[in-house]
Amino acid sequence: MSQIDGLPPLRDVIAAHGLIAKKSLGQNFLLDLNLTAKIARQAGDLANSDILEIGPGPGGLTRGLLVEGARKVLAVEKDSRAMAPLAEIQAVYPDRLEVINADALDLDPLEHLTPPIRIVANLPYNVGTELLVRWLTPLSWPPVWASLTLMFQKEVAERIVAQPGSKKYGRLAVLSQWRTTPRVVMELPPEAFTPPPKIHSAVVHFDALPAPRFEADPDKLQALVAKAFGQRRKMLRASLKGLRPDIEDVLTSVGIKPTSRAEEIGIEEFCALSRALAS
Ligand code: SAM
Q: What is the pTM of this model?
């Protein structure tokens, strides 16, 4: 079947370049270009944005982004085996696609892209969570990016959008909802990927808020929620005891019952507690 961009089907690209998926790199490829175009459309105003795509692999999502009209795509891929297939895409879009063979964890997007920058990625799940926390916790806000559109394990996506009182509410929910408006925009079954992973996946879109919803220092807030949810079944007066000898008084001073548990505490209260602990 011919493709809208004139490039061969991804299955043929993978076969031609011997790009066998490597488990060690968390490679589960999306080969259906209708699906990758649909994911690309979730990223927002592509025509007026530069896109940082992390982990393009054979380029299914990259092609989706370009077909859907992205102004520019910077694709950063660690696996050098993917450079040849990505070069073929680059030949079709010489002015709109730049490919870098590097670890995304080491890259400064502002060295290559012009804001507004939208980050789009179908990443290995462990790298995805690490990068998400990093993107959510720069010292100053708004960040360099305008939005994130990221694939996660469905269970992680549910944790990101969970509300207080839910068993899924935790560190990722607090950090995500503090500075962005995360929404689950798509769910994908294992069969959408080659090879199929064991779990279901979901795409989460995060728009950066112009300012955090409540004032707090990102590192201190992060350390606080890590501690509070690290022992989520304990009362806060016990789980946070190591932070300050007078933790019960500090909790009370910001209106939190020392006997409450982390999953009952809203983002506003966590921010207030973080500020009180810093003072
Ligand atoms: N985006 C492609 C798709 O949807 O078919 C590939 C997805 S695959 C789940 C994840 C890709 O991320 C792989 O190609 C892998 O080599 C790449 N990758 C893993 N860790 C990376 C890192 N730290 N920096 C850049 N790329 C990475």
A: 0.96
